[in-house]
Amino acid sequence: MLKKSNIAGSDSARSKCLKIRAHHLCCIQGFQGYGYSPAFAANLRAIISDIKAFPSRHLELVSKCDVICASCPSKKECTAQESVISRRIRNMDLFVMEKLKIKEGTIMKADEAFRLINYQLTNASRPEEVCGTCKWRQKCLWYMQDER
Ligand code: SF4
Ligand code: SF4
Asked: Is the pTM of this model over 0.85?
């Protein structure tokens, strides 16, 4: 299933898909409306609504700035190549990619991506391993779920 869904390199699929950091597959599921700024929360809410309306929308899974970061006040810090936060966040993406057995730029349907991450992380990881010391842990439904 994963191999079939990995259509990285297809220009037509890439042009229609949303670029999403791998660890944001978790954050999206935990979002309760909190965020770094009103603009950030509004953007994330719109992205989630879009994905819910079109669960077969393709996502390109990456370890760099994505459509969620685009409205984040920390974007500059997170994109600075050598900053501590940039490396920490990228490591979260790389951890998730490793667990999902996917590579940078893998494209798959949103519903398949969420199924895959919930299955793989349920069996292989505790939320701390993905989220580290994220400041939203006590507000995040994905982090707080007991039975994953
Ligand atoms: S705790 Fe933070 S990093 Fe973890 S899923 Fe929630 S928002 Fe994302
Ligand atoms: S904190 Fe960094 S990784 Fe998270 S949404 Fe903001 S810019 Fe993106």
From this structure: yes
Ligand 1 closest atom vs CA 24: 8
Cα–Cα distance for residue pair 11/8, rounded to 1 Å: 8
Residue-level pLDDT at 6: 40
Nearest CA to ligand 2 atom 1: 74
146 is a domain residue: no
Domains of the chain: total:
1
Q: For residue 147, is it within any domain?
A: no
Atom of ligand 2 lying closest to residue 78 CA: 2
Give yes or no for residue 89 CB within 6 A of ligand 2.
Answer: yes
- The pairing of strands 58-62 and 18-21 is parallel
Looking at the CA of 75, which ligand is closest? 2
Handedness of CA 20, 22, 50, 142 (dihedral sign): negative
CA 125 / ligand 1 centre spacing (Å): 14
* Segments forming the whole domain that contains residue 35: 2-141
What pLDDT was estimated at residue 4?
38
